[in-house]
Write a structure and sequence with these properties.
Blueprint: H1 3-31, H2 34-56, H3 63-68, H4 76-95, H5 97-118, H6 130-147
Helix pairs in contact: 1-2, 1-4, 2-4, 4-5, 5-6
């Protein structure tokens, strides 16, 4: 898959994250609790993920492969998803989707740059350079412009 297609997929993923955030935040308002929207969203996310997996996966991992997965990896990502998504659903109706998503993006960006610099989570190291620092500052400046009333 070409790098350009990967960039377009990442951009599309961002659109879908913003779209689901707005839709599920509204669901949380209608259900009168953002955690109920989170439960519904994860239930249907699981359903759709199972459908996609059934169509894509030809062979399940072996028992040996499953035993190599550290215990914390079975639940830590799901826990982070619930916290992050619940905070989106709680704050979007109060802040607006543009404010929430831009501030969420700022948090993701700063964490990603630090995590990439130090190679956290066993991911490839991406050293922080002057060019990346200028890019982060420019994006944060844009986020501030979006949110200054």
């Amino acid at each position: 898959m070409s790098h350009l297609i990967l960039l377009l997929l990442a951009f599309t993923g961002g659109i879908f994250l913003a779209l689901q955030g707005g839709l599920n935040a509204q669901l949380g308002v209608l259900l009168r609790h953002p955690l109920l929207a989170t439960v519904v969203a994860f239930f249907f996310s699981t359903f759709f993920a199972l459908l996609l997996a059934a169509g894509q996966i030809r062979q399940l991992p072996s028992r040996a492969v499953l035993q190599q997965v550290p215990v914390y990896m079975w639940f830590a990502g799901g826990f982070c998803s619930v916290v992050g998504i619940s905070l989106y659903y709680y704050t979007i109706p109060k802040l607006g989707v543009a404010t929430m998503i831009s501030l969420g993006l700022c948090g993701q960006l700063i964490f990603a740059v630090v995590a990439g610099h130090f190679g956290w989570l066993h991911l490839p190291m991406e050293p922080l350079t002057i060019k990346k620092t200028i890019g982060v500052v420019a994006i944060i400046g844009g986020i501030l412009l979006i949110n200054i009333k």
